[in-house]
Amino acid sequence: MLLIGALVIAYAMVVVAPQVILSQVCDREMDRKVLDAQPDFFCPTGNQVAYDAWSECGLKKECIDPKNSLGDGSFFAAQSGQLHSKALYSQGKKIGGWTGYDADGKALPEDGGYKPPQ
């Protein structure tokens, strides 16, 4: 009987708990507000800003060249109402470094970090 009770609890933790957590945390409207509040998003004239799902629960905002649908400008991602990362692309290839963010919002730059063109 003890083993069956442990299995039921384990099943609830694996199957039920993530659904509850995800439904409380997944808020792409909040993610969009976070992304739109970033003043350093760069998108060259003639390109288009696009939003799309990112990871299981996040949202990405990127600048796309409409002629070839490649990333050409900033790429930002947010999840659970927090900024996750920033990078810069040119014709689909990442240029320079990128910056990730921890759960407290602290920037964790890699390879020099994200730097938009001046």
Radius of gyration: 19 Å
Low-confidence stretches: 1-24
What's the number of domains? 1
Q: Got a strand count?
A: 6
Strand order of the largest sheet: 1-2-3-4-5-6
- What structural class do you assign from the helix and strand content? alpha+beta
User: How would you characterize the largest beta sheet?
Assistant: 6 strands, antiparallel
Work out the oligomeric state of the chains in this entry: single chain
Put simply, the count of helices is 2
The residue fraction in helices comes out at: 25-40%
Measure the end-to-end span. Answer: 67 Å
Percent of residues in beta strands?
A: 35-45%
Instruction: Tell me the series of helices and strands, N- to C-terminal.
Output: HHEEEEEE
Shape type: globular
Average pLDDT score: 84
Explain what you see.
This protein has a six-stranded antiparallel beta sheet with strand order 1-2-3-4-5-6, with helices on one face. It contains two helices and six strands. The chain has 118 residues and is of the alpha+beta class. The chain starts with a helix and ends in an 8-residue tail after the last strand. It has one domain (27-110). β2 (58-65) and β3 form a beta hairpin. The model is unreliable at 1-24 (pLDDT under 50).
In a nutshell, what does this entry contain?
The protein is of the alpha+beta class and 118 residues long.
How do the helices and strands line up, and which of them pair or pack?
Blueprint lengths: L1 H24 L2 H9 L11 E7 L3 E8 L4 E10 L2 E9 L2 E9 L5 E4 L8
Antiparallel strand pairs: 1-2, 2-3, 3-4, 4-5, 5-6
